[in-house]
Write a structure and sequence with these properties.
Length: 303
């Protein structure tokens, strides 16, 4: 996998976090925020980011809470991983940088952050690119099983409900991540150097607490935190996303089965286009960077 330098790492106080991020491309370019998933990091955009910057976009690539160079300002702040926290982090990040509006683009946790922020703060989102479509969790119905083939891919979510799973993640975070990379993207032939560049981000001291809370909360195994109650209440209604959107599926995704996108059509009220990307797995921007760049250009042209 090609290695590209993002330049100097920056940091900004944004809400409850000190966010570590990269800022590449012209300062007056159209803003795009690229949001990574779990268990991945900013390296997912190692080719996408520079490509967009060369086309004149201002590209912002933050580490999500619990990952890499991002840390909590106050030791007493709950290490929440709930979806409302991820969406609010994105808006706080824009506020801290004085950015009124941006394209949100992501997958997995990052796609969820983008969907949440686009749904609750549409005035801040000029367009959305989301891998696997509408990612706002329907926590009230989290006890309803998915097809067995899909449930099998969620093994880590069930493992993390247990004390053994927490201890396992703390002791074996890198090994767990590598297994997930292989199973999530069975056709992606990443090398050890590619994995190790991202694995450094899992050494963040808040990683285990944030990850465990995220998966316990979404499956009803842990309560949310008071700070996010109002936002979670709004998300419980499964709000419609009202901004122009491009959704993507990889046809080799080992977690979420690729679809024609029609079942989610009612979740989007503005123009929305769906593409299935041949040969791509769950970490789509790193596996198929050209397709991800094309999706951002497509949604940019809609506004």
């Amino acid at each position: 996998m090609k290695k590209t330098d993002f330049g100097n790492l920056k940091s900004v106080r944004a809400g409850v976090l000190d966010v570590g991020y990269y800022d590449i491309g012209p300062a007056d370019g159209r803003a795009v925020v690229l949001l990574h998933g779990f268990p991945y990091d900013v390296q997912s955009y190692i080719e996408v980011g520079p490509s967009l910057a060369k086309q004149g976009y201002r590209v912002l690539i933050p580490y999500l809470r619990g990952h890499g160079a991002t840390s909590f300002v106050d030791a007493s702040t709950p290490r929440s991983g709930e979806q409302a926290a991820l969406g609010k982090d994105l808006i706080d990040f824009l506020d801290a940088l004085g950015i009124k509006k941006a394209i949100f683009a992501g997958y997995d946790w990052g796609g969820r952050a983008g969907c949440v922020a686009a749904a609750l703060w549409p005035e801040r989102c000029s367009g959305l690119v989301s891998v696997n479509g509408y990612l706002i969790q329907d926590i009230a119905n989290a006890d309803k099983p998915a097809p067995a083939r899909v449930e099998r891919g969620f093994w880590y979510q069930f493992y993390f409900q247990t004390d053994r799973g927490r201890a396992g993640l703390r002791a074996n975070r890198s090994d767990i991540a590598k297994i997930m990379w292989r199973e999530n993207s069975p056709t992606w032939k990443f090398d050890d150097d590619t994995f190790e560049r991202s694995a450094k981000s899992f050494e963040n001291p808040d990683y285990v607490d944030v990850v465990i809370h995220s998966y316990r909360h979404r499956l009803g195994g842990a309560p949310g935190y008071r700070e996010y109650e109002a936002l979670q209440s709004r998300l419980a209604s499964q709000p419609i996303i009202t901004v122009p959107t491009v959704t993507l599926d990889g046809d080799a995704d080992g977690v979420v089965l690729a679809t024609d996108g029609k079942a989610q059509a009612s979740r989007f009220s503005a123009k929305r286009v769906h593409h299935v990307i041949a040969g791509a797995g769950h970490n789509l921007p790193q596996e198929a960077p050209s397709a991800f760049v094309d999706a951002i250009e497509e949604v940019a042209a809609m506004t």
